[in-house]
Write a structure and sequence with these properties.
- The chain is an all-alpha fold.
- Helix content is 46%, strand content 0%.
- It has eleven helices and no strands.
- The longest helix is centred in the N-terminal third of the chain and has 22 residues.
- About 3% of the residues have low confidence.
- The site of copper (II) ion has 4 residues, from helix 2.
């Protein structure tokens, strides 16, 4: 099972500013929603733009503790399942094979195709030397062989054991997966980025520079870029298969989803089955192959709105990203 080289149209679609912003904001909004630093004014702004999570559903409470009974973990599983499904639909239209999931987390040395990229000297210019040094040390640990044995293999065994799955709601499972094994897998398989995109949490919250929209900004450590990286789809394929293992363990044939939030709903999407890729993103990807109704010069309001929300969140300094786990103490 080799690393998949995705067709250029798909890469261009994933790397588009619109898709990057949707993925970034989806994670940022729900991650920040109960953070006391997020002001009421900012929340009202986000709500007004149609980007607030339904029923204020967020994975963490005001103290940063995981909420396991509000279906927010279903949003995590549902949204990424939609992303996979919609990329597979585009692949089918191109006559290309479907995405392949990791059947299990690749063990060190067992899967040369999925060798862990080397740690690098973490040097984000926005951080001080001590923080960069600590983050580099943490990165080394996440990438070590020992880190596979403990905790990754232990998490994997826990999350795939039917008797455990039978004791968890799907939402609890989703939240626990996201904040433990999933976030760490992102950093374990991350490769040194082409640069450090400035976090919108810093004082200077100018619009995100278009250089971060280049296809080679596919850093697994950043929600703005992770889904451009082919490993994302293998990794999220494994996460997605946890839904099926959960359903089997609970003898459920059709999951009755409650958490189906994928970000702002577009016209034409039903509340029952929201999609992850917007019509505009799809049109951009498929070009002449698509069945687009609109012409060029499409409306950019959604883009400007998303950029404004990023700045609003940044001004409250509430955006968290995968790379933040490198700040956590060991
Ligand atoms: Cu994601």
């Amino acid at each position: 099972m080799a690393i998949r080289v995705l067709p250029s149209q798909i890469i261009a679609m994933l790397a588009s500013r619109r898709h990057r912003l949707r993925h970034f904001l989806w994670h940022a909004v729900r991650g920040a929603w109960n953070n006391p630093q997020l002001t009421d004014e900012a929340k009202a702004f986000i709500r007004d733009k149609g980007w607030s999570p339904p029923d204020d559903r967020a994975p963490m409470d005001a103290e940063g503790r995981l909420i396991l009974d509000n279906h927010s973990g279903e949003d995590f599983l549902y949204m990424h399942r939609q992303m996979i499904k919609e990329v597979n639909e585009l692949l089918a239209q191109l006559g290309e094979p479907q995405l392949a999931a990791w059947p299990s987390i690749p063990r060190p040395a067992d899967h040369p195709d999925f060798a862990v990229p080397p740690a690098w000297t973490y040097s984000d210019p926005s951080e001080n030397d001590a923080t960069n040094t600590a983050m580099a040390a943490r990165l080394q640990r996440v990438k070590s062989d020992g880190y596979f044995d403990n905790p990754i293999a232990i998490w994997e065994a826990f999350f795939t054991r039917p008797s455990n799955l039978a004791q968890l709601s799907l939402g609890a499972l989703g939240n626990m997966l996201e904040m433990t094994i999933h976030n760490n897998l992102h950093m374990r398989w991350a490769r040194e980025p082409i640069g450090y995109m400035p976090s919108p949490n810093f004082d200077d919250t100018r619009a995100i520079d278009s250089k971060w929209d280049a296809a080679d900004y596919d850093y697994l450590g950043d929600t703005y870029s992770s889904h451009v990286n082919p490993i994302f789809w293998s990794l999220h394929g494994w996460v997605d298969s946890c839904i099926d293992r959960w359903a089997a363990a609970n003898r459920i044939s059709d999951v009755a989803w409650v958490g189906t939030w994928t970000g702002k709903l577009e016209d034409g999407w039903t509340h029952g089955a929201p999609e992850a890729i917007t019509t505009a993103v799809r049109r951009q990807a498929m070009g002449a192959h698509g069945h687009a109704h609109g012409e060029h010069g499409q409306d950019d309001t959604d883009l400007r709105d998303m950029e404004a929300i990023v700045q609003k969140l940044g001004s409250c300094r509430v955006i968290r990203n995968f790379y933040d786990l490198l700040r956590d103490p060991d």
